[in-house]
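Table S7 (text form). Paired inputs.
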Amino acid sequence: MQNLEVSVVEELGRGTSGVVYKVRHLVDGQFYVVKVIDLSQTSSKKQTQALKEVEILKQVNHPHIIRYYNSLIQNQMLYILTEYASGGDLQKKLNFYKHTRRNIEEGQVWSWAYEICLAIKYLHRHKILHRDIKPMNIFLDKENRVKIGDLGLSKVLKKQEINTSTVGTPLYLSPEQIRHQPYGFKVDVWGIGCVIYTLCAFEGPFTGDSLLTLGQNIAMKSPKSLPAKYTPKLVHFINKMLEKNPNDRPSVKEIIDLIPIFVKKMYRKPNLPKDNVQKYDSPINKVIDDCSSIETIFPRFTSQMLDKSINVTLKKSLPLERDSRPMTQVTKRLLVASSDAVRMCTAYVRKRLVQDDKPKTTINDLAKIM
């Protein structure tokens, strides 16, 4: 594939690994996200992480994980096309609640916790360790449903393999990572615990004035008490995930067993996004072709519906003596051609053509923006 066929709408964010853009596909008109990574300006380690993210994204297919669509490399720039989560990330949601001085309702906390756990359970079942679970990597769709993203630090664990490298965001590192001990899937459970705690307290379970102090607090101290409005069941749920000893920390499957039954009964599995971006002709040409006949936009009228519509129009607009005149097929066609349906079709076409204006920026111009 030589072109992703998207136009840039806006920049969503920048990081050490690249720039993220909201884009609109020129064929289907839907919004997506393109992550752009300049491979020429990154270390070999960063390049490996970026390419690894693509390979892992290709493998996953879950309603609570950001969907991968396509990727390509042009002029040493890596472009990754993925699903767009219109609700933003959990960090923005936290900032909103914090600014308005409102606590997140416990029911909502449980709902998000369940969806996060379902996504991580899927990754673990496929031997994928996320290693960077935090509010900024958890997104929300237009229905406020969870979408786990940013698998750049993920690792596919082989059978009985345990990693010892320290990666991830310092605030959410587990005690075993702080101590440079071997670790496995339980670090993701710790990450979930940190996220759910943050949803309730508006701050991480452990803080510190320096990395050394932060590390000591993670390894040795207990988190502050949560606000009194949250039930002991939720507090117990979080504390189990924040067990210092990974042997005492439950697996994600065991964590799901601790989630109340009512949360699971209320859960409705969201629809998976489409598997790929379908290819069509130019969108503007398609609109013009679609409007060549009224029947391509509006349902075909049955003879009874057409006769009824015409009779109503005649009673309102033609003299009474014409009511008894026979209606020919030619007259029917003339009336249909002058009906409101034609004006509706014209308005529809104009609206579609306005929406498909020439993009201000194309995918090939992204490298110039950075």
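Next pair, protein 2 of 2.
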Amino acid sequence: MMLPGRLLLAGLLRSASTSSSAHRMPKNMGWWDRFTWSSCYFHSRSDSTSSKARLTAKEQLDPFALIKDEVSEVTDRLRSMVVAEVPELTSAAGYFFRAGAEGKRTCPTVLLLMASAVSMEMTDGLENKPRARHMHVAEITEMIHISSLIHDDVLDDADTRCGMDSLNFTVGKKLAVLAGDFLLFRAFSAAVSLDNTEVVSLLATAVNNLVTGELMQMSITPAQCCSMDYYLQKTYYKTAALISNSCKAIAVLTGQTTEVQALAYQYGRHLGIAYQLIDDILDFTGTSASLGKASLSDIHQGIVIAPILFAMEEFPELREIVEQGFDDSSNVEMALKYLSKSQGIERTRLLAAEHAKLAAGAIDGLPESQDQVILNSRQALKDLTQKRFGTRALPFFFPPFFSAVKSSNLGETVHLYLQIA
């Protein structure tokens, strides 16, 4: 039986706003919905965009609409792939695949866009054998991703997931663990059918890396808890390993060169890290309704994340508080006071912007093409990280935001900004 745990806290973008004006963050958004919604405000557009790959604002397409039919096909197949002999297991394993709970299927969207972005010859229809294999990778990755979320909720004893009841809350921990294990079994059974040992190795590496990341978090020492290098390594393992290795797997199946494979990998790597940094910010500035989890959940679990690490650089006295841990609520209050006086949130945003820019740069580094489908797919991947907003649209550059950050109730900050906007 697979060891339950945060195997792959992988997230992968979800919804992209097509409006250039500020909107109120919708309630009950999933993690990747929050990332893409926030990315509209948290980082600037890359200046290295290839002129051949650049589309005008009118030509820009919703990344999810671009391949929605194929993603719908993937969703239908996922429902059939999780059927088990025992009806209770079928119901539990398909809990997040049922109608109304499937979301936008960001993992398949990103991977199918990547497949189109690195393909040199495009053909339509699911009868295209290479495209069918790419869809299988998308299905496998989604099953691994969902399995990791289920195991994660069991470990954290979470009651909710993406604005709905968690599986363990609904069916109990034992059946939830078995459902997560069953999804992993189905995922790797499907991976073997691809008959490509390198792809199977990449997916296995992702699982290994992210289990390692979970163990890094469980066994962290006080010194490691205060190390930004340690945090970033753990973040890659836990959040970016699945999508980076899956993006590379897509390039491998497409028969691309090692250079293109590396670019696909780097896109996923930097995208995943940027997401986690945005999630770190939202843990302090969001609310439970918008996050799908309790605000300040990381710090209450004793997890030190990027904004606190940056604040510690400005206020070394914060280190002693961090090393003591956050079991004492007074330590949480002190840490938040230091954070409010620091540039921790802004520096985290800037680091997320840099990783998002590197992700877009990886797409710009792909071989030139005249195929409009390829160009649209590449632009869609970049839109998932930048989506039209320049630096002037970033909320952290607005003085009212800094005024709100100075207040003790950081959980209300985002709402103050939205009211101002």
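The two ends are 50 Å apart (CA to CA).
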